[in-house]
Amino acid sequence: DQQVKQNSPSLSVQEGRISILNCDYTNSMFDYFLWYKKYPAEGPTFLISISSIKDKNEDGRFTVFLNKSAKHLSLHIVPSQPGDSAVYFCAASPSNTGNQFYFGTGTSLTVIP
Amino acid sequence: GAVVSQHPSRVICKSGTSVKIECRSLDFQATTMFWYRQFPKKSLMLMATSNEGSKATYEQGVEKDKFLINHASLTLSTLTVTSAHPEDSSFYICSAKGLVGAYTEQFFGPGTRLTVL
After folding, report:
1. What's the rounded mean pLDDT across residues B58-84?
2. Does the pLDDT value for residue B1 go beyond 80?
3. Which residues of chain A neighbour B3 with C-beta distances below 8 Å?
4. Tens digits of residue pLDDT in B76-107
5. Per-residue b/e over A76-95, b at no fewer than 16 CB within 10 Å?
6. What are the angstrom distances between the C-alpha of B115 and each of A111, B23, B46, B81, B103?
7. Which residues fall within 8 angstroms of residue A103, CB to CB, at 6 or more apart?
8. How far apart are CA B47 and CA B38, in angstroms?
9. A41 or B22: whose pLDDT is higher?
10. How far away is chain A from the Cα of B17, in angstroms, using its nearest Cα?
11. Quick check: B107 contacting A, CB < 8 Å?
12. Residue B32 in 3-state DSSP?
């Protein structure tokens, strides 16, 4: 059973525009969320995180929004750059101990120059 | 950020043989390491959690006799795929949580592509 879902397998955005990647989860016990970026044949790299006590966290061009009532989070990338082209995974954890993560299926982002 | 390495990066083996994959934290001590498997166009699936000096905790559905995990030191965990079969072909990724650094980040290795003929 997929507890974390990314319903858009792919997304194409023009360079300089905003990229919005979405993620939904079903387990109400999740209270810590992360986004990872992954290039082909490489391991994921951490991008940004958010805990359930916040509804927004910003780091440079990356902003994560959390809507707990809707069990939905999104990653905004502004402005998008060609180097952002990669697969983005959201992950959720029932605690901030970092021991148990559930990953979404990923969204492949292509930023068109 | 912290660095986690995996060796080998790619391995091709014959059906029935065993393959060992190493995961090392290069600049920090990892009390906990995780092994994931990624199927094509699928999410990362947590296989097991290993703590240094103790037995690994396997996720439901993962055969512990098939996927042997040893976390011998604070910087090394190994995954051995025993009697490999073509269906074991996959991308295996390890990650580590260190004593130094954020609690909530996992530092991932680059992954190992296993192909079983």
Report:
1. 92
2. no
3. none
4. 999 999 999 999 999 999 988 865 544 546 68
5. bbeebeeebbbbbbbbbbee
6. 31, 18, 19, 11, 34
7. A4, A36, A89, A90, A91, B43, B44, B45
8. 10
9. B22
10. 24
11. yes
12. strand
